[in-house]
């Protein structure tokens, strides 16, 4: 599931270079780039000029890989327009819940325990106008069919959810087939999620896990009790949807996994949103987009200096 575009009315631009490797861009051997709000234009496509830069970097021995909230299947459709096959290169997907190597195999992942999946379903299935869906790699499992569920695929390019016919059927299939659940969607079927449901999701996660605010707004936390979680994170990605993901799953985890598993020495990361923050902290060279939220562009942990407007000038270094 893609995040809310950071600048829906204008093309992405880069403005801040956070250089933590002494300025030696020639040392970069991997570029991890966010998609929505970064690589993608407002119409959810990768511009031709960006494909040109990706191909140039590839030819120079520095592959460009996605670090995105989308699943690989969804991201691959965007890259395929430029002839780039994501199934034969590394990548960070579902906000770091699953990381693939250059052969298309899982290099690292964070998954929910089955007990946590059951707990989320039991705590939210009776909420009015709410549906819970489970994401496993390139698959989405839903308890029933509806136009709003199908709209995720039609609007955002996600896989069409597989209808399990009921919540019990969804849980039974996950358990019987030993399906790894990377992310759980809690989605409103009518407009934005209510503050009550958002607060409940936050409390569920933070009771034993941690809470991540919406990427665009600060949501007040509540200290009211909720069901015990084995360790989860709550993160709102769209006005009508919030995700429950395993504790420790973020794009920074993906960067660390690629360096450890595949031997990359100097990784450059590009992002614009709160879900990119950990990735930018773990990067050797970090670039914040011009449309990035303030927490990404400035701060003691990510000191920035001004860089040329536009994404293309930075790519010229590769």
From TrEMBL:
Cited Gene3D superfamilies: 3.30.1240.10, HAD superfamily/HAD-like
The organism's place on the tree of life at top rank: Eukaryota
Molecular function in Gene Ontology: magnesium ion binding; phosphatase activity
GO cellular component labels: cytosol
Pfam families: Hydrolase_3
Record InterPro entries: HAD-like_sf (IPR036412), HAD_sf (IPR023214)
Protein's name according to its UniProt entry: Phosphatase
Gene source species: Perkinsus olseni
């Amino acid at each position: 599931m893609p995040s809310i575009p950071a600048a829906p009315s204008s093309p992405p631009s880069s403005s801040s270079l956070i250089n933590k490797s002494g300025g030696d861009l020639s040392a970069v051997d991997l570029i991890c780039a966010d998609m929505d709000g970064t690589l993608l234009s407002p119409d959810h496509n990768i511009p031709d000029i960006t494909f040109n830069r990706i191909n140039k970097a590839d030819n120079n021995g520095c592959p460009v890989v996605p670090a995105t909230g989308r699943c690989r299947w969804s991201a691959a459709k965007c890259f395929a327009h430029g002839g780039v096959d994501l199934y034969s290169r590394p990548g960070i997907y579902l906000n770091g819940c699953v990381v693939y190597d250059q052969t298309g195999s899982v290099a690292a992942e964070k998954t929910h325990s089955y007990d946590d999946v059951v707990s989320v379903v039991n705590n939210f299935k009776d909420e009015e106008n709410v549906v819970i869906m489970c994401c496993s790699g390139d698959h989405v499992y839903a308890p029933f069919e509806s136009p709003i569920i199908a709209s995720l695929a039609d609007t955002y390019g996600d896989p069409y959810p597989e209808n399990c016919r009921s919540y019990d059927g969804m849980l039974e299939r996950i358990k019987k087939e030993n399906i790894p659940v990377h992310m759980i969607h809690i989605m409103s079927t009518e407009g934005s999620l209510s503050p009550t449901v958002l607060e409940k999701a936050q409390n569920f996660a933070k009771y034993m896990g941690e809470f991540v605010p919406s990427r665009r707004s600060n949501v007040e936390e509540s200290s009211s009790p909720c069901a015990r979680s084995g360790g989860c994170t709550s993160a709102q990605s769209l006005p009508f949807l919030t995700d429950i993901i395993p504790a420790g799953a973020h794009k920074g985890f993906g960067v660390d996994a690629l360096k450890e598993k595949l031997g990359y020495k100097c990784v450059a990361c590009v992002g614009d949103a709160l879900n990119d923050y950990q990735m930018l902290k773990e990067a050797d060279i970090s670039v914040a987009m011009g449309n990035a939220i303030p927490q990404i562009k400035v701060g003691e942990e990510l000191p920035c200096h001004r860089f040329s407007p536009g994404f293309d000038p930075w790519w010229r270094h590769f």
